C-alpha cells in the first residue's frame, strides 16, 4: 500500500497516510475539521537498482554491464559475415563491405 501526503489548506496541518490505491482520498482535516484536506504530489519513495537500470549502467556514458554486452554482441555480429564463406560474397553485386549481409 502506498503512503500519501496530505495537507490542509486552511490550517497547514500535514499528515502521511497509508492507504490502498482504491480508497477514496481524505477530505476532512484531523486537526481543524475543515474539508480542505488535499492530497499532495510527492516524489516516489523507491529507487530501482540492478543491471539494466540508469544508476548502474548508463550514468557513466554507457560504461557498465549493458554497454559491455552490446559491444560483445556487436563484435560477434560483425565476424559472422566475414567467416560465412567467399561464395556468397562473390555472388552478390555489392561485395562483402556492405551492410546487407
From TrEMBL:
SMART domains: CxxC_CXXC_SSSS (SM00834)
InterPro entries named in the record: Regulatory_FmdB_Zinc_ribbon
Domain of life: Bacteria
Domain called Putative regulatory protein FmdB zinc ribbon: residue spans: 1-42
Chain ranges passing through the membrane: none
PANTHER family: CONSERVED SERINE RICH PROTEIN, REGULATORY PROTEIN, FMDB FAMILY
Protein name, UniProt field: Putative FmdB family regulatory protein
Source organism: Tepidicella xavieri
Amino acid at each position: 500500500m502506498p503512503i500519501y501526503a496530505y495537507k490542509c489548506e486552511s490550517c497547514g496541518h500535514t499528515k502521511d497516510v497509508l492507504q490502498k490505491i482504491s480508497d477514496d482520498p481524505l477530505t476532512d482535516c484531523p486537526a481543524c475539521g475543515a474539508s480542505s484536506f488535499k492530497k499532495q504530489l510527492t516524489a516516489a519513495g523507491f529507487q530501482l537498482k540492478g543491471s539494466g537500470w540508469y544508476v548502474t549502467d548508463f550514468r557513466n556514458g554507457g560504461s557498465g554491464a549493458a554497454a559491455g554486452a552490446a559491444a560483445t554482441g556487436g563484435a560477434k555480429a560483425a565476424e559472422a559475415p566475414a567467416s560465412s564463406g567467399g561464395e556468397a560474397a562473390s555472388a552478390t553485386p555489392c561485395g562483402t563491405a556492405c551492410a546487407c549481409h
